[in-house]
Amino acid sequence: MYMLSVAVFHPGLIWAAAGLALVPLIIYLLNRRRYREVPWAAMQFLLAANHKSHRRTRLEQLLLLILRTVIISGIAVALARPFWPSSAAPKILGGSRHHILLLDDSASMSARLPVTPDQTDTTTLFDWQITRALQLLDEVPAGDPVTLITLSQPARILSRSLLFDRSLASRVVQELAPGEGVNDLAGALQLINELPAEETDRQRALYLFSDFTTGYRGPVDESQLAVMRQQVQKLQQESELVLFDVGVEQQDNLAMVEWRAAHAVVGPGEPLTLIGRVHNFGTHRHEPMRVEIRLDDQLLREEALPAIEAGADHIFQSTIIPERSEWEVLSARIATGVADALSGDDQRPAVLQVREEIPVLLVDGEPGREALLGQCGYLLTAWSPQLRPDEPVLVRSQIAVETELIGLALDRYAAVAICNVRRLPAEVWHKLHEYVQNGGGLMIFVGDQVDISHYNETAGDWLPARLGAAAFEQPGRDEFVRFDPRSLAEPMQADFAGRERSGLFLARIDQYLRVEGSQSSRGAELMRYTNGDPALLSRTLGAGRVVLVTTSANMEWNNLPAKGDFVTLAVNLLRYVVADGARFNNLTVADRYLCPARQLEAAGLVNSKLLSPDGRESTPELRRDERGYYLQTEPLLSSGWYRLRFGGSEEPIAVRRNLADSDLARISESEIRTLFPEPIEIRHVSPGSTTTLIQQRQEASAVMIYALILLLLVETLLAMLFGHQK
User: Fold this and answer.
1) 66, 98, 112, 158: which has the fewest Cβ within 10 Å?
2) Nearest to 63 by CA among 721, 703, 707, 705
């Protein structure tokens, strides 16, 4: 004899069944009170004659009442989908089920267990998950099909056909290795919804394994989250869904979260500052450590870092001097003997491009006979201080006038500076906008020739701010402002912070243009004047930047070029707007390498090859859109160094881990239920626990429907029989 533990998928319908069961009884009682009884002498003889059949009539009515009550309430119960353990139910109650296992192979699953100072065990959360997944496969009834899906971005189905062979499914699971991408739950849900029709005819059971850290949802925004909730609700209506929590309490983890060059203007023989940042994702203070800096995998130097408090980070700097024009392959790695849950995020690679020269275009609104007499002459001298004709310079400046811009190929230049140009044709403004979107740097210096209304009407929508009227209508000796040293933002802070008496802040600004809308989200203020008006504004457009300077680039509106700090200011602005030449070569796991063909050598692109860190070779695809040709690869799923070979050239590509999985903090059950609402079963199967994973269930809905149809036929026949007898 079995003790059946019956449950339902939709418990609310049980209450509906109870309410519906009262309907026939209420109708029966109302019918009994339908007529008012009036004594009638002749009726007494009929009642006496009917007394013998009265008992039989009541039994017939009671039987029909019971049948109708059972049929109506049974329909609601069947819709509630009752189920119980298959061991306690006959096999006729249900056929085979389609079991779908979603296995979390994201980067956080590589966390080692346990993490102690004297740790020697290398068991990971992923290993524990595989153990439980194999146990679940052993518990799947023979003959039931299985589908395996991994969650690391991009989510993928491990077998395009159903796996009926249990040993084959177990072998596929055993061969899995942890990935390096973030959790792609949205992609996995989409894959389930796109399963072929023959794989969705059966009842389905979904088992989701995860450590449920802060990155379990993956990189989704609110709109994507709403779509995911709809997908989950649809799955819950069609399938049984069980979440297996294989995680443990938050562990300590250090990560190298930043490693980059301070700027993109890098030339041979010039000092270059590298900026790194280490973050402590744990809950305990981390002891002092060392960071190894490597060049082409050779140890260059070590930097000592102090202790880092829980939740804090430490920024460090290191300086190198590139010797020649080439790609520099640098990495920074945390070197510490203290236990760290994740080792994959301890290292961060970076590719730097050391350029022989950086071409810059200067557009002069009023050229002079000599360079310093024009609008751009001081910028030209600051960027390209060539004392001798044969002396090499890093910045190769070219001066043009506005009429020459239509015929120039702007993508040849790393930056364009417009100095006191009155007007530009609309097609040139459009050309400049496209140039910035594709990664170019644009600087606009104003002056007395600028047509303010033209700038606002033609380019005001994408500039950092709209231009306003001049600050001083008739400037006099006492009407001027200076730069405010308290208003510094990047890129000015590094060289000017704390130097209130430097030439930059002593310079006199006799005239400037006020701006409109600078406080909006469009532009960021880099520096202000002492009266609070914006002096330098910046805006990011696509892959490039625009900087608006509200005074002139020469000495007509200020005496800044006469100060020694003008050179530092000009160089910093150039470094700020010039896009990183290696921006296409520094990627994150699951990114595609995508680079415009003009950035590469044209020869050999068709026969280009990509070498992965493990030596595998693939062929990138040469594609074309409205902006021209570009080279694209499949998503790069492993971190480390890739090599792109085309023609006789080779470029390195650094692929870094996504930091979303470096934070091993656990989310609460209530947060899980924001995506997986009731009814949902969350089972904690942390390392060391031994429990049965599958509660085999048989649904009774199908057999109940057959039984209700049979009861309906019986009720109809009995009603006809009893009525005929009467």
Assistant:
1) 66
2) 721
Q: pLDDT tens-digit profile of 373-409?
A: 889 999 999 998 865 666 678 899 999 999 899 889 8
Return the structure tokens found at 159: 């077998």
Q: Phi, psi (5° rounding) for residue 469?
A: -75, 165
Give the predicted TM-score (pTM) of the model. 0.77
Can you tell me the distance from the alpha carbon of 554 to that of 264, in angstroms, rounded to the nearest whole number? 26
Question: Of 553, 577, 601, which one is at a domain's C-terminal end?
Answer: 577
**Do 505 and 617 share a domain, yes or no?**
no
Are 350 and 362 found together in one domain?
no
End-to-end CA separation in angstroms for the chain: 45
DSSP single-letter state for residue 690:
-
In angstroms, the Cα distances linking 706 to 9, 90, 166 are: 20, 15, 33
User: Token pair for residue 612?
Assistant: 């992965």
Buried residues in 484-519 as b, exposed as e (16+ CB within 10 A): bbebbeebbeeebeeeeebbbbebebbbbbebeebe
Say yes or no to pLDDT of 15 above 80: no
d(CA 627, CA 567): 36
Residue 193 included in any domain: yes
304: tokens are 């000592």
347 CB contacts (<8 Å, ≥6 apart)?
Answer: 256, 331, 332, 333, 334
Q: Are residues 51 and 132 in the same domain?
A: no
Strands (E), 612-724: 617-618, 621-625, 628-632, 640-646, 649-656, 681-684, 697-699
Positive or negative: CA dihedral 73, 79, 83, 89: positive
Core vs surface per residue 25-37: b (16+ CB within 10 A) or e: eeeeeeeeeeeee
Question: In this structure, are residues 131 and 246 in contact, taking their beta carbons and an 8 Å threshold?
Answer: no
For 352, the enclosing helix (H) or strand (E) is strand 347-353
The CATH number assigned to the domain holding 474 equals 3.40.50.880
- Written as one string, the DSSP assignment of 78-127 is HHT-EEEEGGGS-GGG---EEEEEEE--SGGGG-BSS--TT-----BHHH
Q: How many CA atoms lie within 13 A of 577 on its CB side?
A: 32
Both tokens of 348, joined, read 């961060």
Sheet holding 594-596, edge to edge: 594-596, 628-632, 621-625
Q: Is-contact 139 694, C-beta < 8 A?
A: yes
| Paired strand residues for 620 | none
CA distance linking residue 139 with residue 124, whole number of Å? 23
Query: CB of 500 within 8 A of CB of 514?
Result: no
Look at strands 649-656 and 586-588 and give their pairing: parallel
CATH number, position 264: 2.60.40.10
> Are residues 520 and 669 located together in one domain of the fold?
no
By C-alpha distance, which of 161, 158, 143 is closest to 198? 161
226 — pLDDT class (breaks 50, 70, 90): confident
Residue 398 phi, psi dihedral angles, 5° rounding: -130, 130
* CB-facing half-sphere around the CA of 462: CA atoms within 13 A: 18
Closest CA to 137 of 86, 178, 174: 174
- What are the angstrom distances between the C-alpha of 197 and each of 99, 193, 207, 299, 723? 15, 10, 20, 56, 49
Domain, as residue range, for 464: 358-577
Q: 55 by DSSP, 3-state: which?
A: helix
What's the rounded Cα separation, in Å, for the pair 532 and 487? 9
Cβ atoms within 10 A of the Cβ of 652, count?
19
The closest alpha carbon to 334, from 250, 259, 251, 249, belongs to: 259
What pLDDT, on a 0 to 100 scale, did the predictor assign at position 89? Answer: 40
The pLDDT tens digits for 431-470 are: 999 999 989 999 999 999 999 999 999 998 899 999 999 9
Residue 382 located in a structural domain:
yes
Quote the number of domains for the chain. 5
Same domain? For 375 and 518 the reply is yes
